[in-house]
Design goal:
By secondary structure, this protein is mainly alpha-helical. Helix content is 56%, strand content 12%. The longest helix has 22 residues. The chain is globular, with a radius of gyration of 19 Å.
Length: 234
């Protein structure tokens, strides 16, 4: 069995879960820059992986467990209201905040130079951890972790949050009497799996979002810009 460094053992204690396959936790905490830095060749990729595959799984695990939880908590709400709650609870700012609470920035394996600890890297690592927990122990331990660490964010939703684009527009009308401007910066990928990069501009500030759909990319950009405006007090 792989022996983990003390920092990863401490993370297990914070999570309240001890891996029977500790290599899964190490993989969940390995950013692709670290793998590339090590000069991994094709023949090595079976044993040295970044956390991208686990993040892909963890995203689905989080979504399913969160929907289950929301249905339990709000039996009278309809799909639209639940969807707004879900979008907020699985958003990058919420995930990055939980990742910071777990101090993942101190345990993530990244390249020594040229990699900033962005909200995306933190959020992706948190999802990768959920994916690793699922593969190691199944849904129940993942459910326990989600309900423990997302409890504060869920309880903070006295009413369903507004769609980020709507919230941004209302904030701008109230504070600046202006409207946001959205622009598609690029579209890449294949026809069946496109990647949109959208920029939204208002009050001399801008933010970008990237997603597999234009509307989702707009929502991500709007959420980031609204946070900037509120933080700057514009």
């Amino acid at each position: 069995m792989e022996i983990l460094p003390e920092s990863m053992c401490a993370l297990q204690r914070q999570l309240g879960y001890v891996f029977t396959r500790p290599e899964l936790l190490r993989e969940a905490l390995t950013h692709r820059s670290c793998v590339h830095q090590q000069g991994v060749r094709k023949r090595q990729k079976e044993t040295v992986n970044s956390n991208e595959r686990l993040e892909f799984m963890g995203d689905r695990v989080l979504g399913m467990l969160m929907v289950e939880w929301l249905l339990d908590c709000y039996p009278k709400e309809q799909e639209g209201e639940l969807a707004h709650r879900l979008a907020h609870l699985v958003s990058r700012p919420v995930l990055a905040g939980i990742a910071e609470q777990l101090e993942l920035q101190n345990v993530l394996l990244v390249a020594m130079h040229g990699v900033q600890m962005t909200a995306k890297i933190m959020a992706d690592a948190l999802e990768a951890i959920l994916g690793a927990v699922f593969f190691d122990g199944g849904l129940e331990p993942a459910r326990v972790i989600v309900r423990r660490f997302w409890k504060e964010a869920l309880n903070a939703q006295a009413s369903p949050p507004k769609d980020p684009k709507t919230a941004l527009q209302e904030w701008l009308l109230a504070h600046a009497q202006s409207l946001p401007v959205y622009e598609v910066m690029s579209v890449s990928g294949s026809d069946h799996a496109p990647l949109f990069v959208v920029r939204v501009t208002a009050c001399g500030l801008f933010a970008e979002g990237n997603a597999g759909g234009k509307r989702k990319a707009e929502s991500m950009a709007a959420s980031v810009l609204l946070s900037k405006l509120q933080r700057n007090g514009k």
